[in-house]
Every structure is written in C-alpha cells, then in structure tokens.
Amino acid sequence: MSVEMTESENGDNTTRTTIKIDDEIWRRVRSQAIREDRRVSEELEQILREYFDEEEP
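Now predict its structure.
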C-alpha cells in the first residue's frame, strides 16, 4: 500500500474511506451514535479505538 493512499489530504490526521457493512450492524451503530449525540463516523472510530485498545489523541 502506498503512503499516498493512507495520508490525510488536508493535514488533519484523518482518512476518508468507504466501507460496506451489514444493514443490521449499520442500524445499531447509527442508533448508538444518535443516543451519544455523535456522527456515525465518530461512533465507528470509538468502536475501533476500543477494539484496538487505543486512546484518543
């Protein structure tokens, strides 16, 4: 994988991507995001951080 594919284009240390997930999983993540007053992307990042045992920057 080239570095160009993973680097942020605007310098904010984030990467935009597209994923395909099961509809039921999407509904659960979206519902949780709404309850937590977050965007779905923020909820997914939180789930991934917990899974990989990473702390927020």
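The radius of gyration is 13 Å.
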